[in-house]
Amino acid sequence: MIGGGTGLSVLLRGLKEYTSNITAIVSVGDDGGSSGRIREQFDMVPVGDVRNCIVALSDREDLMEQIFDYRFERGEGLDGHSLGNLLLVAMSYLTGSFHDAVSDINEVLQIRGRVLPVSDVPITLKAILDDDTEIVGESCVSQADRPIVRLTIEPEDVQPPDEALEAIASAEAIVLGPGSLFTSIIPNLLVDGIVEAILQSKAMKFYVCNVMTQAGETDNFTAEDHLFSMLEHGRKGIVDYIVVNNHETLDQDILQRYAEEGAIPVKYHKDKLEQLEAKVIEADLLNEQHVLRHDSARLAETIMDQMYSQNGFWNTLGWKRNYKLVKKKNDKAKKMADKKRKLSGRK
């Protein structure tokens, strides 16, 4: 799984119910908030996205979220920092590197899988806009307000950990996204060796498209715009399947709130996606509560359904029984959600 931000955490939360054979490769370009302050003060990789993925893969996610996401509200130098971020900083100094710190925490917490930073050094994002303006830093790129023509990273020759390349080479599935296109997903493709490893891998290659556009970063983007940008910064062949949401919420209050923030549902045109040589997987993936995002269980099930129908390794790895058990549980939860939706007057 390759990405960053909250999107990758959503996917991991669903997939861990099927298997612990998961490797999350996480972007390290964040320069805002607690992670940005840590990056500047300690000259180390931003830790926030890695922290979120560790929490998502933990067995006691509710408890781990309370502990790792606890933020200090006062105290000189502590105000605004999360406990999980500070723990990762401390572990980095104890072990000698951020990579070793994350590996140790993966083991100590016995999470279902492992989390790896895409690089052991922090990355700075640079974007060229359609008027030739250059903007620097993830926080600026995420608020570009003009179409991004090209994204680059510094250092240009940054290397991924060997474990990340090994995980890609041995994977049964490689999933890009969901998450912010230019600040969470594409930056990983610009790290030396990542695209080449994806192309050489025999895994099924998925791209999970966002359900909503992001103001400033992907204004008015369709799914094909997302995929085209991915291929432009990566290479043809890094995506076999694109997963798109085919349910548009009817909750006008939520839609209106998003519209006021400059975000709209991501539309797609199947024929145009197929012209980009991607097979389209359409599914109702929406978690429609107070925010519009992917439903963890539905997204994971959609990906696993595709793998189950296409691959013969299920019986070999002994996943078939677990797959059916989780699917049965998800079907029950889906029926309950549909029932509640009907009772509330939604379709």
What does this structure look like?
By secondary structure, the chain is of the alpha/beta class. It has 2 domains: 2-27 and 123-343, Rossmann fold (3-Layer(aba) Sandwich), CATH 3.40.50.10680; 31-116, no CATH class. The chain contains 16 helices and 12 strands. It has helices at 5-15, 33-42, 48-57, 61-68, 83-95, 98-109, 138-141, 162-170, 181-189, 194-200, 223-233, 252-260, 270-275, 296-310, 313-317, 320-343; strands spanning 2-3, 23-26, 114-117, 124-129, 134-136, 148-154, 173-176, 204-208, 241-245, 279-283, 286-288, 292-294. Strand 11 and strand 12 form a beta hairpin. Helix 1 (5-15) crosses helix 14. It is globular and about 50 Å long. The mean pLDDT is 88.
Structure class: alpha/beta
Q: Uncertain regions: pLDDT < 50 for 5+ in a row? A: none
Please identify which CATH superfamily of the largest domain we are dealing with: CofD-like domains
Please give the CATH architecture of the largest domain.
3-Layer(aba) Sandwich
> How would you state the average pLDDT, rounded?
88
CATH level 1 class label of the largest domain: Alpha Beta
Shape: globular
Helix content: 40-55%
SSE topology string: EHEHHHHHEEEHEHEHHEHEHHEEEHHH
Radius of gyration: 20 Å
What strand order characterises the main sheet? 7-8-9-10
**Strand elements, count:** 12
Number of domain units: 2
Our count of helices gives: 16
Strand content: 5-15%
- Spatial separation of the terminal alpha carbons: 32 Å
Largest sheet: 4 strands, parallel
Q: What is the name of the CATH topology of the largest domain?
A: Rossmann fold
